[in-house]
Amino acid sequence: MNRLRLFWLLGLTLLLAACANPFGLEKPKVNISSFRALPARGLMPQFEIGLLVVNPNGVALPLKGIVYSVNVEGHPLLTGVSNQLPVIPAYGREEITLNASADLLSGMSLLAGIMRQPKERFDYEVKASLDVGSMLPSIPVSDRGTFSLRGR
Q: pLDDT over 90 for what percent of the chain?
């Protein structure tokens, strides 16, 4: 009886491990490669963000969509979505250009904090969820870093 329980426990463990990463795919790496302001539409500032997506897998990733956000100093500053995405080749990389809208209230809160305590360097975090379609779950990716307004 104990061997049967051990067999079922081992089988369940292997099944759960397979469900956590059903095809053995590694997460793509996503980094900000460019950032520029676009002409505003009304009161909503618009930005163009370049993301470099690196695919460390032996199969291409046919991206169907992306949902993303950029936080600066913990403030959710930019958000956006896109369904106009390239296929990321196997063991390859592609530059994706996205348009993002700024959260005006969060931006004003960030600016007020900077005015209270001026800083040289700022922390940022990019979070994205890549939809590869079909039966695969979305792939969450993130990148953190710092930047300076002085360009150093």
A: 18
